[in-house]
Write a structure and sequence with these properties.
Length: 357
């Protein structure tokens, strides 16, 4: 039930700190150590390459997962859009492990890939919010998101839950492989949960930004580099899906290779700046678009902020910044849709789970 909330989407955005704490609780044992099934551990250890298969927002979580697994567990990862995999099947490694990410566990495009790779004899792990779902039953292993039912068509808490579980999976695999890490995911996720609470308490500020930038615009651009680029893709999907504003997520460095031609007087450009090593370059991109008339908004992170930034998210571990930077993006989309009179929870032409290929 949505209780006092006007929309499920807003309720689900607010639930994200609780979901982080549920994940921490469910993935640790009484000694505060990670608790994953032995068969998942051996599947991860045996894999020489991981193929993540997903659609939409779950695909965007997969892009963050690639970075986590490669950096922490030192296994190469490819991320594929499920609907393309059947035609563009990549050359597979000798010991592939397929990881399906799906909130509903019912996405037909992902299921088609699962059927195909099972016929080929490859192992599969499903990360889902619905343990009895088709993708969970038909895979060899399941990891649960513990996010509670997600009702709004626009996915919010499932995205952050997927990233949190992928971080846990990456660190657990590193532990099993004997890789020493200076990163305790349970502690870091607890810091994230507190940061999320701060952010969900700043709705008025974000609502005002949505008014200033999205009230009448036809289009919008989200830019970022490195980890911020992954979030810019999700930010654009969220905005277009519920507010019908044409939006694109772009790698900051790619702008000058074509897209900057679209910048006109007043075009909203939202730049994410939470990564220290690219902070200077993303800010240069902002100057380039401002010089062409863009209405730029910089969302930065505590410790990297500058005076004119529009919004600053609390500091969290650099590998986990998508978990916090996505929250103002979700809220911007929510308020943009609300102010434009759109049906936030049930956008036109869309279904919660896409069960046809
Ligand atoms: O249930 P799934 O995670 O497999 O769904 C995948 C996509 O259909 C889903 O994420 C979709 O993109 C959302 N509506 C995005 O908000």
């Amino acid at each position: 039930e949505k209780g006092t909330y006007a929309h499920y989407m807003l309720k689900e955005i607010d639930e994200q700190p609780i979901v982080m704490r549920n994940i921490i609780k469910n993935y640790q044992n009484e000694n505060n150590e990670l608790k994953l099934d032995a068969d998942i551990r051996s599947a991860m250890k045996a894999a020489d390459r991981i193929y993540i298969i997903a659609a939409g927002t779950s695909y965007h979580a997969g892009l963050v997962g690639k970075e986590l697994i490669e950096k922490l567990a030192n296994i190469p990862v490819e991320v594929h859009v499920a609907s393309e995999f059947s035609y563009n099947t990549p050359l597979l490694s000798e010991k592939p492990l397929f990881v399906f990410i799906s909130q509903s566990g019912e996405t037909a495009d992902s299921r088609a890939v699962l059927v195909k790779i099972k016929e080929m004899g490859h192992p599969a792990l499903t990360i889902t919010n619905v343990p009895g779902s088709t993708l969970s039953r038909e895979a060899d292993h399941t990891l649960h998101l513990y996010a509670g039912p997600e009702i709004a068509v626009a996915s919010t808490k499932a995205y952050t839950a997927q990233i949190a579980v992928l971080a846990i999976l990456a660190v657990d695999t590193a532990n099993v492989k004997g890789i020493q890490l200076d990163f305790d995911p349970l502690q870091e996720l607890a810091i994230v949960a507190t940061a999320m609470e701060t952010l969900t308490g700043q709705k008025e500020e974000i609502e005002q930004l949505a008014r200033d930038y999205f009230e009448t615009t036809r289009n919008a651009f989200f830019i970022g580099r490195s980890g911020d680029y992954n979030v810019s893709l999700e930010a654009a999907l969220k905005l277009k899906e519920i507010s019908y504003i044409q939006a694109e997520g772009f790698a900051g460095g790619e702008l000058k290779h074509g897209t900057i031609a679209l910048i006109e007087e007043g075009t909203p450009v939202i730049a994410l700046a939470t990564q220290e090593n690219v902070n200077y370059s993303i800010r240069s991109n902002v100057q380039e678009v401002v010089a062409r008339g863009a209405n730029a908004m910089i969302i930065s992170m505590k410790g990297l902020e500058e005076d004119d930034d529009s919004f600053v998210v609390p500091h969290v571990n650099e590998l986990l910044t998508p978990l916090v930077s996505v929250i103002p993006m979700q809220l911007l989309a929510y308020y943009a849709a609300l102010h434009r009179g759109c049906d936030v929870d049930k956008p036109r032409n869309l279904a919660k789970s896409v069960t046809v290929e």
